[in-house]
Amino acid sequence: MNPYMVFSQEQRAKIVKADPSRKADIGGVAKEIGAMWRGLTEAQKASYKGKTRKASKKTKAAPAKTRKTKRALSPYMKFFKANYSRVAKAHPGNVTVVAKEIGKLWAKQK
């Protein structure tokens, strides 16, 4: 997280706390924060640099491992896999044409 982002988070919280109706005015608040940031001296901006290290250490926690379960193939995908090699031999090197041809075969099945 860069110094501007730390400054932005702090200022956004102060602005919204002072006037809760501005919570939905994301763009207007962002413009105001940007103007405030440009008005800071280099020394004031440097003070936020030290805060970035603390913030980045907090956010660099190991991500939780999630395991996605595979869904079963749809009937069309099973049909596609079963017919791909046969149709691909008739139309070598053109995947788009192969997919369209398999789609036509599928439509005839119904």
How are the secondary structure elements laid out?
Blueprint: H1 3-18, H2 26-38, H3 42-59, H4 75-90, H5 95-109
> What's the SSE pattern?
HHHHH
Net shape? elongated
Reported for the largest beta sheet, the result is: none
Structural class: mainly alpha
Q: Compute the gyration radius: what is it?
A: 28 Å
Approximate strand percentage: under 5%
Helix content: over 70%
Q: Outline the low-pLDDT stretches.
A: none
Overall domain count: 2
Structure summarized in a few sentences:
The chain has helices at 3-18, 26-38, 42-59, 75-90, 95-109.
How would you sum up this structure, described in words?
It contains 5 helices and no strands. It has helices spanning 3-18, 26-38, 42-59, 75-90, 95-109. The mean pLDDT is 84. The chain is elongated. It has 2 domains: 3-59; 75-109. The protein is an all-alpha fold.
